[in-house]
Design a protein that fits this description.
Two copies of one chain form a homodimer. The first copy, chain A, is an alpha/beta fold. Chain A has two domains: 4-104, 60s Ribosomal Protein L30, Chain: A (2-Layer Sandwich), CATH 3.30.1330; 111-267, SPOUT methyltransferase, trefoil knot domain (Alpha/beta knot, 3-Layer(aba) Sandwich), CATH 3.40.1280.10. Helix content of chain A is 35%, strand content 18%. Chain A has helices spanning 24-34, 42-50, 69-73, 84-91, 111-115, 130-142, 160-165, 169-172, 184-190, 207-211, 230-235, 253-267; strands spanning 4-6, 36-40, 55-60, 79-81, 100-104, 120-124, 147-150, 175-177, 194-198, 205-206, 217-221, 238-241. The radius of gyration of chain A is 20 Å and the shape is elongated. Chain A starts with a strand and ends with a helix. The A-B interface holds A 135, 138-139, 141-144, 165, 167, 169, 242, 244-245, 248, 250-252, 254-259, 262 and B 135, 138-139, 141-144, 165, 167, 169, 242, 244-245, 248, 250-252, 254-259, 262. Chains A, B: This is RNA methyltransferase.
Chain lengths: 271, 271
């Protein structure tokens, strides 16, 4: 059972994990150095625990205690209880969804572990926006994609906003970060995946055609503005496009990934 | 040629259209009463003008004048030129994308005008989030949807954030607001559309099956939490679902609309 600790001072040093949640730079440093991440809202906290992540502590106003009683019963981590005003002073914003939890990160698995047994993999190149990373995880999970690989420059899927947008899919979806940008796609090809870059390149074929008849697919997505790097475009086994109305040449990356993931998993032979 | 007017006082009454852009409540009132909307950034301003909307005025820092010189040459509306600091004081935020324009709204067309000749229509029920409305317009336009109809409670597609997320697609896509929530779907059916509600209802069939062989489709989307109202679900000709991985029961509305629009326009006979 979590120990309930009443907090009456916003400067209480035990609240260090929860400070200044809107300051992206500061949070990145703090979370990296302490190996933690923040889960926000009952549903997301629940999914983090179900995903096997261990809590460092909880923070919530009293009225949220009941809804999380079953979770608090199963842990020894402290639960800091404070007024909503005090919570806002600490975190820097109004915590709409009530509960927060600070969780231990785990060492990232190797690429080999993540792709083992996978038939469909998303590979994200330099998607630096947390919201977009979260949205891609959510759509990918819904569409039955088996794993996600991130280029070294991609935004952190365990950053609070990414977790929230992903609705916790970052906890159930196997993922890791590619140790090297160079050589990543050829390695996937060597592991039996057909790598398909979504791009507006001239030799791009409609995505439905590109995925047809394949049994292991790695879908490669870049960010909206710059798109996929020339190296990755050249190294991908195929280049594909989502056909769009004439005169329109881009989709939001979350929308594009939803369509591409749907068409990919639908084309795979039934498991 | 637009008259360039240098502004040195944030309280200048001529800047009324541009005040407090982050205050949603206040902006709604102001924009409704004055029949205006705000376009932000060179690309969006350009698309609003190309869409035939007339400017009331422009506001920008001096360094953005060159990029918009061709647009300013073609209008008699005043262009207020001021420092970025002053612009921030007026609008309440840092105007990243440089230029702002205040534009005249036009009377909304009738439903009959909007659906005339359309083969694919999106019908949005009570999507109250501006970002989601904008994202649905953007995906719909990219996927070749012909028109959008909004229920009375949907968010305003001409609100600044919706316009921005839509990347200006709200200016090229024919749309209007349904005068009545009641009876809207039967009217579309009477006009020859097969109305298809995206829902988790028990009798929902996979969306690809639902759209097969149709020549005129109205896709009905609701918001993520509550979904489509019981009345609209019952009144729709068909109920359809985007098949998802077991245990996952929702997609972001922007992702769902992208997939549904793709599958719908692809199923229509070639024009």
């Amino acid at each position: 059972m979590a120990e309930l600790i009443e907090i009456t001072d916003a400067a209480d040093p035990r609240l260090g994990d929860y400070r200044d949640l809107r300051d992206v730079q500061l949070r990145r440093l703090l979370e990296a150095e302490h190996g933690l991440f923040l889960a926000e809202g009952e549903k997301v906290v629940r999914r983090a625990l179900e995903g096997g992540y261990a809590p460092r502590s909880f923070l919530m106003a009293e009225r949220w205690l009941d809804g999380l009683a079953d979770l608090l019963a199963g842990t020894d981590a402290p639960c800091y209880v404070l007024s909503e005003e005090l919570a806002e002073q600490v975190t820097g914003f109004h915590v709409h969804r009530g509960a927060l939890a600070s969780m231990h990160r785990r060492p990232l698995p190797s690429v080999a572990e993540v792709i083992d047994g996978a038939r469909s993999v998303l590979v994200l190149e330099d998607i630096v926006d947390h919201t977009n990373v979260g949205a891609v995880f959510r759509s990918g999970a819904a569409m039955g994609i088996d794993a996600v690989l991130l280029s070294p420059r991609c935004a952190d899927p365990f950053y609070r906003r990414a977790i929230k947008v992903a609705m916790g899919a970052v906890f159930s979806m196997p993922w890791t970060r590619l140790p090297e940008w160079r050589g990543a796609l050829p390695e996937l090809s060597a592991a039996g995946f057909t790598t398909i870059a979504l791009t507006l390149a001239e030799d791009a074929v409609p995505i439905e055609e590109a995925v047809e008849g394949l049994s292991k697919v790695a879908l490669v997505l870049g960010s909206e503005g710059p798109g996929i790097s020339p190296r990755w475009q050249a190294e991908a086994d195929r280049r594909a496009i989502i056909p769009m109305r004439e005169g329109i040449d881009s989709l939001n990356v979350a929308a594009a990934s939803a369509v591409a993931c749907y068409l990919t998993t639908r084309a795979l032979p039934k498991a």
